[in-house]
Amino acid sequence: MIVAKQKPIEEIIESVKNAGRILIAGCNECVTVCESGGKKEVAVLASALRMYFMNQGKDVKIDEITLERQCDHEYLEELRKLIDQYDAVLSLACGVGVQFLAEKYVKTPVFPGVDTCFMGVTEQRGVWTERCQGCGQCILARTGGICPVSRCAKRLFNGPCGGSTRGKCEIDKDLDCGWQLIVNRLKEMGKLEDYEALIPIKDWSKERAGGPRKIVREDVR
Amino acid sequence: MTTEIKTPSQLEKVLKAGHLAVTSECGPPRGSDGEVIKKKAEMIKNHVDAINITDNQTSVTRLCSLASVIHLKLMGLEPVLQMVTRDRNRTALQSDILGAASFDIFNILCLSGDHQIFGDNPKGQNVFDLDSLQLIQTVRYMRDEGKFLGGDPILRPPRMFVGAAANPFADPFEIRVPRLAKKIAAGVEFIQTQCIFNVEKFKLYMKLAADRGLTEKAYILAGVTPLKSVGMAKYMKNRVPGMDVPDEIVKRMSGVAKDKQPEEGLKICVETIQQLKELPGVRGFHVMAIEWEEKVPEIVEQSGLYPRPKIG
How far, in whole angstroms, is CA B260 from its chain's centroid? Predict the structure, then answer.
């Protein structure tokens, strides 16, 4: 899933402080799972903003809605009949949802309520960690199913570097060394000899470096 | 071990003539005064075969290694250009290699580089377009095939003796020798190791490397660093990632009065070299006297590595 975290309330207030009618729009997908932008978080943020504006002596209308997804036309269309009632939309979707909403409703300012962080997993309730950077050319088959792009701080394809200490990364003693994990898994599978295969220079054009990416599937269009 | 000379590098010649080589390193200043690097080199030039110039070590911004090696070259010295992949993409790396080659810099040390979080720009981007092994492959390709990574021919290709670092003390230990094998497979010709304080562990590493025939495929220079104080010993033990300073070294440093500690640190350094001189596979020493370059001549002399061979 795409993992996001809520922006500081001060930053949110700063972005919407001049609006008289605000719609807070949550998303029922990733940000609900990572507890940053689902129905519950929409309600909590709405209460906080109502309280803030009340204390400021301002009469601000704050409504709540949570869409099934903000990255699909179908669900975003649900806002079409409502959008003119608001001066601003505060979207708690990831950056993808915020942008798609803004593209669709060009006259209404849309503000992000979360910082979109990474693609990751729920390790345990309240703990999310990164697993993928969408580099466009998956090499997990060669690295024991553990990704050196997302889990090595230097994205080394032939690690570990000299800073790996007791299984941890040189940048943070609480962070696992990605290459230690790769070595451990190769060993578990009885394939440690695979470690010695040189991984060739990466084609980064399939990653962000190649510019905004697009996939077209004629068979499903 | 091949003794065929591939480049005009003095370091290569010394090693291939069968001498124990001695290299050292100088860190460039945090400013634009090139005299600083020249003065450091002046202190050690008669006692070493080649001088490494570090590339923004620990990610702290400094005068660049490329300009620094040119200063040394213009003094008639033999520099080793350290190059990290942290800060430059493949275009810039290849371009800087050519820039160095245009001044007849004949040695390069290929590194990934410390993470930028340790330096003065922790909020900066890192590049890592290549890793250190891929940089080794790149330099060898440019030199041996005379081509850019993109496939175009290079007019006057670089002639560089290609080195890399190895840290026998980082984890996991079981892949440290396989990792050396990988660097050799990538085309590395000489290795400078991380500072050795745990001699027994290094001996084990070298034995495992020798068992695989690796010590006959690359020239391994054992890295040593003189400790200035017990504080430095403790700092390296506890704070520097991948550094192995055994308790007995810390104990030995703390066992002498503060004003005698630098002397004790130098003694440990010389003893380490003495112990490793006869170790199979050790082809020389890389003396890293951190901001203590003036002590390099003393260490080299007391270790019986002076005078340096004259090879023309």
Answer: 28
